[in-house]
Every structure is written in structure tokens, then in C-alpha cells.
Amino acid sequence: MTGVGDGSPIAWDEAVAAVHAAGRAAAAPPVRLPIADCDGLTLAEPLVSLTDLPAFPTSSVDGYALRGAGPWRLNGRVLAGHTAEPIADGTAIEIATGAMVPAGTEHILRVEESTLDDDLVSGTPRSLPEWREPGDEAHKGDELLPAGIPVTPAVIGLAAACGYDTLAVRRAPRAALLVFGDELRTAGPPGDGQVRDALGPQVPGWLRRLGAEPLPGFAPRGPIEDTLEAHVGALKDALEHADLVCTTGGTMHGPVDHLHPALAALGARYVVNTVAVRPGFPMLVAQLPDGKFVAGLPGNPQSAIVALMSLVEPLIAGLHGRAVPPRGTVTLGEPVPGRGGYTHLALVRVEADGLAYPLRHSASAMLRGLARSDGFAVIVPGGQGDAGAVVPLVPLPMFFGARP
């Protein structure tokens, strides 16, 4: 097996770039779907306005369209959804918000600032126009949104407003989860040498928030028996259904760590194999001959989430055709130590004073700190996070849908 990261751990930023590039190269072809079915997917083509927005002069208020000097004789009505005849000099046409402005209109008088006496309208129109001209928001042919951004309800609304019935999108990659480890139990408290599986219940939720579609029946599946044959069989089965298979545990080379031999048996190549990051460095992404991916997450719970945010998030973004998810910044309220030659991803919480503080209970096997965290502060190799320093932040996705 060949690929980035064979041998010594590679730099964290290099690993992020490598998996994103691999995902982008393997992104599925676009499909065209009804706009209502596109929520959460990714624009595969720029959204270009099919018309001027608005397409015709549109009243911004309820009132009267006027021409000439007042008072004006009322001469009809125009409602939203109807066309209007040109307005005659010295007349008023009652008009509704959103209605087409009659040709020849000089002013629109707001209804609350008008007086109607029999069929005579009087009042003082405001000096600024009370209607929207064609193209106020966009002109036909304008690029409204670039390819590669998530489709949100607002994007769907914009597409509908300018005339789209369908959109070219990339579907969410389908993801499966395989849990490795005979030492795991899936119900009840830990004991008798067994620990409770804390990754199987949570990883599907993270995958969904990162933009993947966890497959029923594989979210999760396991624990898989600690044999090479069982590992190979489980991976083959999952890869028949999923574009991305995440595994937990077995990323080292111990006596019951069968992930590496299983990947070799399947003809996979490493995209990344071990990363110079703490916690979580024994992480990997491998690609199968058919273009599908396996992401090996460490068995320690917090290390596994570091691997998700380091490798799986940019991989999923690439499979969507999106850019690498942006990082924010935080100002540290307390010092955060470095980890020598490794990037340190340190759990932090942003408090009411706007500063980010490192959390206790943040060792590789712990989840208590993670449950209160806003994300990981990034301390570069060879560096220290001093109090008051501004450092990058890898935010944890708290809600459904990948970050743009």
C-alpha cells in the first residue's frame, strides 16, 4: 500500500490537505433534483439568475399609484399577480404590495398617508420611489452563488425566486461505521474487563453533522470480532453500500489490530497513515481501488473525534465538492501547552468573557471535556498557547449540516 504518510507521521495541515484533495478527486458526478429535495446537498453549478429580480416594477407598499398633480381621481385597482394598464394623467390606481406598477406611474402614495373622499385621493407622496425596479436585486445572468456551497432553505428560496425548478447538486456521501474490539460492550455499565462502547452511539451523529448520510444497519455495526477474517468481511460488506466506511480502533499494530492487514487484503492505498497531532495520531484514511474510502479512527474516544475533525471532515467536504471547512480563531484566556513536534488540538470552551479556556478531563480516553467543548484550539508544532494569544479553532459542528 502506498500513499501520503507511509512511515513517520505527517504534519496535520498536510494531512488535512491530502484527504480533502482525495475526496474532491473522487466526488460523484452531479445529479439534477427538484429544488425541494436539495436541502443539505451541495451546489454543483453556480446559481445564475434566470431573470431580473424583480422581473417587473413591484410596489413596496399598499397604497395608490399616481400620475400628475393631485388630488387624483381613483381609476381602478391592481393586485399582486395581475398585470396593470398604463395610468392616465391626474388619476390614481389602488395598488397592493407586490403588485406590478402601472406604466407611467410617477409616485406611490402609502395608504396610511392618504385620504379617500368619494373617488378622490389626496395626500403627499414621499420623495423616494415606493417600488422596486427590475434588477434591483439581480439582473438576468448574474451569478448569485458559486458552486460548492451547501444548499440551505434560503438557497432553495432564492433559486425558486429566480425561476429554478431543479438544481444540479452533489449528493451526501453514504457512510457506514464499523466498531472493532472484543473488549467493548454495547449496553449497560462497564465492568469485568469490558468498557462501554462510547463511539458507536455518537459517531453517526457527527457524520451527519459533517455532511454524510449514515446508513441504517451500519450506524453502527459491531463490535466486530478481533480476527483478520472478520475485519475483511465486515469491510467488504460495508463498502458494498457506503462511499465512506469509518472504523473505530485497530489503527496501531498490536496483536489484535487487524485494520492495516485488512486494508492490504482489499488492495487499498493510504491517503494518510498516521498524523503528527495529539491526541489521536494513529489515524488513517485509505482509498479502495473502486474509489471508496476507509477512515480509521483510534479507539480512544476523544482521539477518535480528533480524527473525525482532522481527516473525515475535510474528506467529506471534498466528496461534496466543497472547500476545506474554514477555521475560526479564539483568544486564549489561559495558557495551553504545546506538544513538541506535534500539532496540539486542545479542547476549549468559550466563556461569557469571550475568551477560550482549556477544559479538564480532556485525555484521549475521556469524553467529559468534549461534551462541554466548543471545539479544538490549534497549537502549532513547537509552539505554546500563551494567555491572550489568538489561535486557530476547529469548531465542533453542533447542529445538522456541514459548515460551509
From TrEMBL:
<keyword id="KW-0500">Molybdenum</keyword>
<feature type="domain" description="MoaB/Mog">
    <location>
        <begin position="176"/>
        <end position="318"/>
    </location>
</feature>
<dbReference type="InterPro" id="IPR036688">
    <property type="entry name" value="MoeA_C_domain_IV_sf"/>
</dbReference>
<dbReference type="InterPro" id="IPR005110">
    <property type="entry name" value="MoeA_linker/N"/>
</dbReference>
<comment type="pathway">
    <text>Cofactor biosynthesis; molybdopterin biosynthesis.</text>
</comment>
<dbReference type="Pfam" id="PF03453">
    <property type="entry name" value="MoeA_N"/>
</dbReference>
<dbReference type="InterPro" id="IPR005111">
    <property type="entry name" value="MoeA_C_domain_IV"/>
</dbReference>
<keyword id="KW-0501">Molybdenum cofactor biosynthesis</keyword>
<dbReference type="InterPro" id="IPR001453">
    <property type="entry name" value="MoaB/Mog_dom"/>
</dbReference>
<feature type="region of interest" description="Disordered">
    <location>
        <begin position="119"/>
        <end position="145"/>
    </location>
</feature>
<feature type="compositionally biased region" description="Basic and acidic residues">
    <location>
        <begin position="129"/>
        <end position="143"/>
    </location>
</feature>
<protein>
    <recommendedName>
        <fullName>Molybdopterin molybdenumtransferase</fullName>
        <ecNumber>2.10.1.1</ecNumber>
    </recommendedName>
</protein>
<dbReference type="InterPro" id="IPR036135">
    <property type="entry name" value="MoeA_linker/N_sf"/>
</dbReference>
<keyword id="KW-0479">Metal-binding</keyword>
<keyword id="KW-0808">Transferase</keyword>
<comment type="function">
    <text>Catalyzes the insertion of molybdate into adenylated molybdopterin with the concomitant release of AMP.</text>
</comment>
<keyword id="KW-0460">Magnesium</keyword>
<dbReference type="InterPro" id="IPR038987">
    <property type="entry name" value="MoeA-like"/>
</dbReference>
<dbReference type="InterPro" id="IPR036425">
    <property type="entry name" value="MoaB/Mog-like_dom_sf"/>
</dbReference>
<comment type="similarity">
    <text>Belongs to the MoeA family.</text>
</comment>
<dbReference type="Pfam" id="PF00994">
    <property type="entry name" value="MoCF_biosynth"/>
</dbReference>
<dbReference type="Pfam" id="PF03454">
    <property type="entry name" value="MoeA_C"/>
</dbReference>
